[in-house]
Amino acid sequence: MNRSLCALVLAGLAAVPxxxxxxxxxxxxxxxxxxxxxxxxxxxxxxxxxxxxxxxTIVTREEIARYGWVTFEELLxxxxxxxxxxxxxxxxxGTRGAVGGGVQFLVxxxxxxxxxxxxxxxxxxxxxxVPVESIDRVEIIRGPMxxxxxxxxxxxxxxxxxxxxxxxxxxxxxxxxxxxxxxxFARVGNxxxxxxxxxxxxxxxxxxxxxxxxxMLSPAQLARLHPGAHAGIDGDQDLRLGSLDVSAQWHxxxxxxxxxxxxxxxxxxxxxxDEGTRIQLDTLHASLGYAHRFSDDLGLRITGIxxxxxxxxxQIDMLLPEVHGQQHQSSRRLEVEANLHxxxxxxxxxxxGYRLLKLYDVRNRAFLYPFIDQxxxxxxxxxxxxxxxxxxxxxxxxxxxxxxxxSLLPDSxxxxxxxxxxxxxxxxxxxxxxxxxxxxxxxxxxxxxxSQVLKLAWGTASQDTDQINLPEAERIETWEANYTLTCTxxxxxxxxxxxxxxxxxxxxxxxxxxxGFYLSQDDNSGRWRTLGLELxxxxxxxxxxxxxxxxxxxxxxxxxxxxxxxxxxxxxxxxKADWHRGPLTFAAYGNYVAPMQADWDFVAGPEQGLVAxxxxxxxxxxxxxxxxxxDPTGQGPYASLHVSNLLNAEIRYPANELTDLDRGLIGPxxxxxxxxxxxx
Length: 680
Fold this sequence. Notes:
Layout: H1 11-15, H2 23-27, E1 38-39, E2 47-48, E3 56-60, H3 61-67, H4 72-77, E4 83-86, E5 91-95, E6 98-99, E7 103-107, E8 110-111, E9 137-142, H5 146-149, E10 156-161, E11 171-177, E12 181-192, E13 195-206, H6 219-224, E14 239-250, E15 253-266, E16 277-295, E17 298-315, E18 324-345, E19 348-369, E20 372-378, E21 381-393, E22 398-408, E23 412-419, E24 426-431, E25 438-449, E26 452-463, E27 474-486, E28 490-511, E29 518-542, E30 545-557, E31 571-581, E32 584-593, E33 600-604, E34 609-613, E35 621-630, E36 636-644, E37 652-653, E38 665-666, E39 671-679
C-alpha cells in the first residue's frame, strides 16, 4: 500500500537487518511509527517524513510483490491522485489537475534526461522504462520542487530506487501473458561494509493495443479515411524493451550506469497502410559521485552526470500510401552539482548547492516525402543554479522550512534551420526575457503529538517548453495544507491544494473564412488554476489484512474564460486490499478515473472566433486488478498470477494532436500474466 505522508512500511528499511526477509514481516509495523521514516529524495539529505514540507507517498518492494504489477506504468496508475494518458508514442503522468512534463523523474537519485528541450519533439516515455522487478522502492514527492531540483520539477518528483542490494538480494524471474506479452529479469550483486555492486538486466515485450478504428473515429473521420488504411490497431502497437542498470559504491565513491532501448509502433495522425510507424529510442545515463562526511554535522556531495538520448522514427507510415520518411532527434547533457549539508546547531539543518547544466548536440532531422525536409540544430545551452534551504526546529512541536533557488539562463536561444537540401542554413535567435528566474518555498510543520503532523506550505516552480520561439518557462505557484493522523492499526491523511499556473504554452490557429488564409501561432498566454482535495485512509483491522482507499477531487479552470482545460478529470479514486495467509497472498485493487475532455483546438477568425475541442469527452472507467502470489520462504522459488483490467472495461484516452481519434484511443483490455521466479 502507498503511505501518503506516513510512507508505509519503509520504516523497516531502518529497523530491519540488511539480510533479506519476508515482506510480511514489514506489514506488522504499526502505522504510528511511520512518520519517523527517513528518505533522501525530498531534500537531497536524509529527512524524516514528518519534516518534509510536502505530501509524500512511498511504494515498497513488498507492495510491488503483493500486487504483482507487471510494469512501472501499472504501478504509477495505483498511486493516489495519479492518472496516465496514452497517445501511443508517449505516456503522460497526470497529477493535481495537470498532465505531462510536470514531474521530475530520478533513478537512484539521478535526474533523468530532460524531456522538454528546444526544437525537439521527443517523448517522456523512457522515464517509465524501468523493469518493475528491479524496483526496490519508489518515493513520490508532490508539489513544486524547483528549489531542490531546478526547472521541470513542476508538479513533484519521483525517485525510483533500484540498487538496494543489501536488502533485496539477487533474483531471477520470467513471465508470460496474454497479448503475447512476456518479460525476463535477472539481478546479481553483493554488499559489504565498504560498498556494494548491483546489476539489473531486464527485457519486456507485448503486442500492445487492439481494437477497430471504427470504434475510435467519428463518422466524419471514417468518411475521409483512405480505403487502403488498416481497419484495426492490432499488430501496429507492439513493443520491445531492454534495460541494463549498474550501480556500485566503494567507500565515499559511487558510480551508476543505465542503458535502455525501446522499439515500438505508434499511431500518427491516421491509421497506417503497411507496417505502421515505428520508433527506436536509446537512452544512456552515467554518473560518478563523491560523498564525504567531515563530521556528523557537515557533509559534502559532488555528482557529475552524462546522459544522451537518440530518437529514431525510422519508419513513417501515415496520411497516404505514398508518404514515407524518417525523423532523427538527439541530444546530450552534462551536469555537475555540489551540495553542502551543514547542521550548525542541533535545531537547524541546512543545505546549499550549485549546479552547472549543459545541453548540446541538440538536433532534429525530419524528412517526410513529399511534405517536409528540415534540419534544426540548437546551439549549446548552459544554465547555472544556486540554491539553499534551511529547516529550523523552532520548538518541540514546530518546524519552519524555507528555501530559494536562483537560476541564470541564456539571454537567447540560437538555432540553425535548413529547409530542404537546395537551401542554405539560416541562423535564428530568440531572446529570453527571463534570464534570472527565482523559485522559493516556505513551510510550517506542526506536530502536536508524535502520531500526527500538520503541514502548511507555499512554493513555486518552473517548467521548460520545447518551443524555441517561447523561451520563457511556464510557472506554477502552490498553496497546500496537509494533515496526517496515525494510530497503531490505521492512519488518515487529508490535504487541500490550490495551484496557479501561468505562462503556459499553447498553439493558436487563425483561419480567414473569406480567403482561406491559415496561420499557426504559438504563445505563452495560457493560465490555469486548480483547487483540489486529497483524502487517503489505510487500515490493518487484522494482522494479515491491509486496506487502503484514496480519493482526489480537483477542479481546473481557465481564468481567462469559460473554456475548462482538457485532460483534467474531476475525480481520481484508488482502492486496494491484500490478505496474507501462510505462503499465499491475495491482493485486489481498483483505479477509477472520471470522464475527461480533450484539450481545445483554438481556431480564430478575424470576424468571429470559433473554438472546438480536439475530440469528444471520454467516459470515466474502473480498472480492476487481482494478484495471487505464492512465496513460501521469502527466499527460494515464488510465483504470481496477475490479472489487469479484470472486467475488460473499455478504457478510452482523450484525443490529442497526434492521436486525433475523435472518440478517443481505446486502451488495454484484460491481460493475464504468470510469473515464476527465484530469490537467492
